[in-house]
Amino acid sequence: MELNPLDTEPPHIPWHPAFVEALQMELQDYEDVLEFHPEFQLTSEPLRIDCVVIKKAKNVVIKKNIAVIFREWNLLEYKSPDDYVSVDDFYKVYAYACLYASFNNIPITSLTVSFVESHHPKRLLDHLGKDRGYKVAETSPGIYTVSGDILPIQVINSRKLPAEENLWLKNLNNEHNRFTIDRVSNEIDKQGKAARLAAYLYVIITANFAVAKEAAKMTNTFERFMEETGLAAKARAEGEARGEARGRAEGEVRGRAEGEVRGMEKVARNALAQGATPEFVQKITGFDIQTITGYK
User: Fold this and answer.
1) What gap in Å lies between CA 67 and CA 113, rounded to an integer?
2) Does 145 share its domain with 33?
3) Is 194 a domain residue?
4) What is the dihedral of CA 292, 255, 7, 238, to 10 degrees?
5) Is there a single domain that holds both residue 70 and residue 193?
6) What is the pLDDT of residues 178-212, one digit of tens each?
7) I need a surface site. Which of 40, 80, 134, 251 has the fewest CB within 10 A?
């Protein structure tokens, strides 16, 4: 049976690759002067930052709101919509920045650190202001600039970013409606970037499954995107695998049930052979009298 890729929802949502793709789309006007290194391994040990963006030329000025603070090397930590940047996360990434500067023999003043999440970072901002004595200011909607440290730091609440300027990051969430999901799909279609945004599309569709499925009834855009990026085949394979697993489980249940019935049949026949009445056999097996008399 042919499976519709929108009939089943994959259990895991890979937010971080989608974040890197969204970030690249946000900064696509500067793609000739920026390098993106997702899941950048800081040392030989398993220490990784979600993305490092490197300027190819020192004198390039990035005017994009989310990258105004950028210097030569820029570390970004991303949290999925169900997560948030904690105080511990701040110190971990700050330490990563110091390690990055040390291991790559570059001046710490050439780095910036950005945190991206989908919530208002009240606890973190309170800590930075009250306990660290930093100055925190919302320099543009959803972007909180932290000053007072040798490192330029910003915390971004993607939910508050303006849709007209930050379509990709703002819509990397699990709260889409028909209007927002249509807007994203139309922009991807207009730019012809479906192949480039495979991970982003996968996340948007799976995290907003009911809305995407409804949208697919009105337009074939999402199904076409899934075919172009190979996501349809993946979804069908996952659906078939789950179907096979369900089939095996149901078969095991049926097998156990049939085995129990055969076992009780043997008990009934043995009891009857030893002179037990059908009424007695009914009590110990639960079979009806007609079935029991058929065993004689």
Assistant:
1) 11
2) yes
3) yes
4) 180
5) yes
6) 889 888 888 888 888 777 888 888 888 888 888 87
7) 251
Amino acid identity of residue 111, one-letter, is L
| Within a domain: 239 | yes
Q: How many domains does the chain have?
A: 2
Q: What is the CATH number of the domain that holds 174?
A: 3.40.1350
In degrees, rounded to 5, the angle at the alpha carbon of residue 51 between the alpha carbons of residues 46 and 54 is: 120
Q: Are residues 245 and 192 in the same domain?
A: no
Q: Does 160 map to a domain?
A: yes
Pairing of the two strands 34-41 and 48-55: antiparallel
What's the token pair of residue 157?
A: 């609440």
pLDDT in tens, 245-256: 666 666 665 666
CA triplet 243, 247, 248: central angle to 5 degrees? Answer: 120
Tell which wins on pLDDT, 10 or 228. 228
Residues 242, 197 share a domain: no
Q: Smallest Cα–Cα separation from 180: which of 211, 216, 154? A: 211
Residues spanned by the domain of 262:
234-293
Question: Which one, of 229, 242, 183, lies nearest residue 203 by Cα?
Answer: 229
Q: What is the pLDDT of residues 26-52, one digit of tens each?
A: 999 999 999 998 876 654 545 678 899
The amino acid at residue 72 is E
Radius of gyration of the chain (CA): 29
Vertex 70: Cα angle to 65 and 72 (nearest 5)? 155
Q: How far apart are CA 190 and CA 90, in angstroms?
A: 38
Q: Average pLDDT over the chain, rounded to whole?
A: 83
Is residue 2's pLDDT more than 50?
Answer: no
207 CB contacts (<8 Å, ≥6 apart)? 13, 81, 173, 174, 176
**70 and 171 belong to one structural domain:** yes
Global pTM value: 0.72
In a shared domain, residues 175 and 210: yes
